[in-house]
From TrEMBL, chain A:
GO terms for molecular function: hydrolase activity. InterPro entries: AB_hydrolase_1, AB_hydrolase_fold, AB_hydrolase_sf. It comes from the Bacteria. The keyword Translocase does not apply. Signal peptide: none annotated. Gene3D superfamilies: alpha/beta hydrolase (3.40.50.1820). The keyword Coiled coil does not apply. Residues 33-142 form the AB hydrolase-1 domain. This is Carboxylesterase.
UniProtKB/TrEMBL annotation, chain B:
It comes from Kocuria turfanensis. InterPro entries: SCP2_sterol-bd_dom_sf (IPR036527). The lineage of its organism: Bacteria, Bacillati, Actinomycetota, Actinomycetes, Micrococcales. It comes from the Bacteria. This is SCP2 domain-containing protein. Gene3D superfamilies: SCP2 sterol-binding domain.
């Protein structure tokens, strides 16, 4: 008997900021949408184990998409995109996610992303708390400079190996070899998009001084950060959460910057804590 | 420790490092073009590793000022290197990027050569978790 996964893939056309994208997404489960953003230079397969986690998909419709220019989502269909350097901005990134959620007609979604996905989760909570029940910024911070580096595309080096091995230390040594190497492998595939993604992560994203404006009555915030993350450290996550009223911060032990991909069983325990915290917060918000 | 026994132990470390590298399946699978020389500055000792096609050609312990040329250097305090040389390193001592971003490690010299060999160098540094460090 063939082992066929319940995860299904679809394309949806998304129009945003004058651009047309054919966006590929994977989904499984029923219930409240839990929409998931991969890390910079990567793709939705990082969420492979979450998509097949029966405990979570029994109660949540898990949707993991490929950001345009990543995985099976091409660059824009209606422009000569190759004539401009790719530099992701906070405005376009946020507008895209909102347009995707509208195109999929998602009601009351929870948004979760890691790394530059964690940072955009914070941006979404800041910009459109009315559109999301909650956000789970994973490995996110108010500001994360220092990773917009020319090395990711240096023509004299092997960009695939530099991107993959440059991110290797972001994982914890306790994580299983097979999963760390899968994560490394994904990073060999996205080197051209990686640097442009990091323009958002390390340059355009800056919520310093603005975190107090996030309306957590509308959009709950639960932050998760791994102790082996050298980019957005637990100190960065804790500092960020402390400035958001009623936000939670959970430090994840023995895991790093790609928790869903490098060691899902460990991550799953923390994610379930986060989802429970959101339920509690939203229950309190409704009754108050 | 006397100077003689210290010399012996650093030489033993060099041999252990050479053996670990030359028998490592990952480096041997991917190191066909891993040819370069680099300095490990550990404060108490300096080590120049010269690689040729994925195998250790020479390890020079505490070379003189002109004794062993190298292309790039990885420098940190002895205390930081000792943190690398344990089986399960603590956060931020688990790689050259983490220790450079968050601790006292510095990557110097022709960093392009480091980037060209990053995959194998990353694995070589992890070998310190099994062979330890000479400081």
């Amino acid at each position: 008997m063939a082992r066929i996964s319940p995860v299904t893939g679809h394309y949806v056309t998304v129009e945003v900021d004058g651009l047309e994208y054919k966006v590929f997404y994977l989904e499984n489960g029923t219930g409240q949408p839990l929409i998931c953003q991969h890390t910079a230079g990567c793709h939705n397969h990082q969420w492979r184990d979450l998509l097949e986690d029966e405990e979570i998909t029994a109660n949540y419709r898990v949707i993991a998409y490929d950001l345009p220019r990543h995985g099976k989502s091409d660059p824009p269909e209606n422009t000569a995109w190759w004539t401009e350097e790719y530099k992701l901005t906070a405005d376009h990134y946020a507008n895209f996610i909102l347009a995707l959620c509208d195109a999929l007609e998602l009601e009351n979604p929870i948004f979760m992303g890691s790394s530059f996905g964690g940072n955009i989760a914070l941006q979404l909570a800041y910009r459109r708390p009315d559109r999301f029940a909650a956000v789970i910024p994973v490995e996110g911070a108010d500001y994360s400079p220092g990773f917009y580096l020319d090395w990711w595309q240096h023509p004299h080096a092997n960009a695939a190996q530099v991107c993959a091995s440059g991110t290797w230390d972001l994982m914890a040594p306790q994580s299983p070899d097979a999963d760390r190497w899968k994560t490394w492998f994904y990073y060999t595939q996205g080197s051209e998009a990686f640097k442009g993604d990091l323009h958002f992560y390390s340059v355009d994203h800056d919520l310093r001084g603005k975190l107090g404006d996030i309306d957590t009555d509308q959009c709950a915030v639960v932050m998760l950060t791994g102790e082996y993350d050298y980019l957005t450290t637990p100190e960065d996550g804790a500092r960020t959460a402390s400035q958001i009223r009623n936000a939670d911060f959970i430090e994840m032990k023995e895991i790093g910057h790609f928790p869903m991909s490098e060691n899902y069983p460990v991550f799953a325990g923390y994610l379930k804590q986060a989802l429970e915290a959101i339920k509690t917060k939203k229950g309190a918000s409704v009754s108050s | 420790m006397t100077a003689t026994t210290e010399t012996t132990s650093t030489q033993q470390w060099a041999e252990a490092f050479r053996t670990a590298n030359d028998q490592d399946p990952e480096i041997q699978a991917h190191g066909k073009y891993f040819t370069c020389s680099y300095l490990l500055d550990m404060d108490d000792h300096t080590v120049v590793v010269r690689m040729n096609a994925g195998r250790v050609a020479e390890i020079s312990i505490d070379p003189g000022p002109l004794g062993a040329p190298y292309q790039f250097a990885i420098r940190a305090s002895a205390a930081t290197w000792r943190e690398f040389g344990v089986e399960m390193p603590a956060p931020m001592f688990h790689g050259i990027w983490s220790a450079s971003f968050q601790r006292d490690m510095r990557l110097e010299g022709d960093v392009l050569v480091l980037m060209q060999n990053l995959r194998c160098i990353t694995r070589q540094i992890e070998l310190l978790r099994t062979v330890g460090v000479p400081v």
